[in-house]
UniProtKB/TrEMBL annotation:
Binding positions (GTP): 107-114, 202-206, 260-263
GO-annotated biological processes: SRP-dependent cotranslational protein targeting to membrane
Name of the molecule in the record: Signal recognition particle protein
Catalytic activity, reaction form: GTP + H2O = GDP + phosphate + H(+)
Oligomeric and partner information: Part of the signal recognition particle protein translocation system, which is composed of SRP and FtsY.
Compartments where found: Cytoplasm
A GO CC annotation given for this chain: signal recognition particle
Length: 308
C-alpha cells in the first residue's frame, strides 16, 4: 500500500531540492503535484482539497531562515498534515472501569471483522486479558464456525448461539434464522458471569450497505452498550470507503476505525480519508491473514512511512 503515492511525493519534493527560496509559483506547482498524487491514490476529494489548502497556507508562511532548506520544510509540512488527516494522536482501547470491556465489531461482509476478532483477542490475551469472543453474526451459516476456528487459533473461548437460538438454516436464502441481538446480550452476560475482562462481539455484514443490517447492528449496540464500536474497513475498496464509512457512522456510529488489508497493493486512499471524513480515530491496522498481522495504528509512523 502507498508505494505509488510515496514515490510520487518523493519525486515532487526532489524538484524543490537546491532551491534557495520558494516562490509562490513554486509552492503552487508543488501543491498541485501533491493534490494529483493524493487523488490518484483514491483519497476522497474533500480531504484532498483541505489537505492541499493547508499545505499551501503553511508553506507560504514558512520563514526563509532556519535549519531546514525549503524542500525539507515542505516535507515537514506535508508530514504534519498527513499526521493530522490520519487522526493526529494514537488512540488506544478504552477499557471499562468495571469489566468486562465490551467491544463490538461492525463493517461490511468480507471487511475482515472475524479475522480481526481473533487478532484483537490474541493481542489482548498476550497483554494478560481474558477475552471472550461472541458470535453474533448469524447471517452466514458458516460465520459461527469461522469465528470458532479463529478463537481456537487465538486460544480464547467463544460464545456461540446454542441450537434453538440459531434455529434452522433456510436453504432458500442462505440465511440462518436467529436473533443476533439476544446472542450478543447473552454473550456479554456470559463474559460477566465467567469473569472475562473483555468481550468482543462479532456482527453480521452484507456485501453492500443495507438498511436491515444497519438496524440490526444498531439494535445490538443498544442492547449491549459497548465501550468501543470498531468499524472495520477493507483499505482496498478505494473511493467506496468514504460512503460506506459514512453509512455506518449514520446507521450505527462507531468509536474507532480498523483498517484491514493494509498489506494489499491497492492505492490506499481509504486509509487516508476515513479518519478525516468520519472524525473517528484509526485505532488498529490489519496487515495480513495471520493473527499476528496486526498493529496499533500510529498516525505519525504511517505518515513517515508514506514519506520515507
Ligand atoms: P468478515 O466477513 O468481515 O468477518 O471478514 P473475514 O474476517 O472473514 O475476512 C475476509 C477475508 O479477508 C478472509 O479471507 C481473510 O483471511 C481475509 N483478511 C482479513 N484481514 C486481512 C488482512 O489484513 N490482509 C489480508 N491480506 N487478508 C485479510
Amino acid at each position: 500500500m502507498f508505494n505509488s503515492l510515496s514515490d510520487r511525493l518523493t519525486a515532487t519534493f526532489k524538484n524543490l531540492r537546491g532551491k534557495g527560496r520558494l516562490s509562490e509559483a513554486d509552492i503552487d506547482a508543488t501543491v498541485r503535484e501533491i493534490r494529483r498524487a493524493l487523488l490518484d491514490a483514491d483519497v476522497a476529494v474533500p480531504v484532498v482539497r483541505e489537505f492541499a489548502a493547508a499545505v499551501r497556507e503553511r508553506a507560504l508562511g514558512v520563514e526563509v531562515s532556519g535549519a531546514l532548506n525549503p524542500a525539507q520544510q515542505v516535507v515537514k509540512i506535508v508530514n504534519a498534515e498527513l499526521v493530522e488527516i490520519l487522526g493526529g494522536q494514537t488512540r488506544s482501547l478504552q477499557l471499562a472501569k468495571t469489566p468486562p470491556t465490551v467491544i463490538m465489531l461492525a463493517g461490511l461482509q468480507g471487511a475482515g471483522k472475524t479475522t480481526l476478532a481473533g487478532k484483537l483477542a490474541l493481542a489482548l490475551k498476550e497483554q494478560g486479558h481474558t477475552p471472550l469472543l461472541v458470535a453474533a453474526d448469524l447471517q452466514r451459516p458458516n460465520a459461527v464456525t469461522q469465528l470458532s476456528v479463529v478463537a481456537d487459533r487465538a486460544g480464547v473461548p467463544v460464545f456461540a448461539p446454542h441450537p434453538g437460538n440459531t434455529g434452522a438454516t433456510d436453504p432458500a436464502d442462505d440465511t440462518v434464522i436467529g436473533d443476533p441481538v439476544s446472542v450478543a446480550r447473552e454473550g456479554v452476560a456470559q463474559a460477566r458471569a465467567k469473569q472475562h475482562d473483555v468481550v468482543i462481539v462479532d456482527t453480521a455484514g452484507r456485501l453492500g450497505v443495507d438498511r436491515l443490517l444497519m438496524q440490526q447492528a444498531a439494535d445490538i449496540r443498544a442492547a449491549i452498550t459497548p465501550d468501543e464500536v470498531l468499524f472495520v474497513i477493507d483499505a482496498m475498496i478505494g473511493q467506496d470507503a468514504v460512503t460506506t464509512a459514512q453509512a455506518f457512522l449514520d446507521g450505527v456510529d462507531f468509536t474507532g476505525v480498523v483498517l484491514s488489508k493494509l498489506d494489499g497493493d491497492a492505492r490506499g486512499g481509504a486509509a487516508l480519508s476515513v479518519a478525516k471524513v468520519t472524525g473517528r480515530p484509526i485505532m488498529f491496522a490489519s496487515t495480513g491473514e495471520k493473527l499476528t498481522d496486526f498493529e496499533v495504528f500510529h498516525p505519525d509512523r504511517m505518515a513517515s512511512r508514506i514519506l520515507d
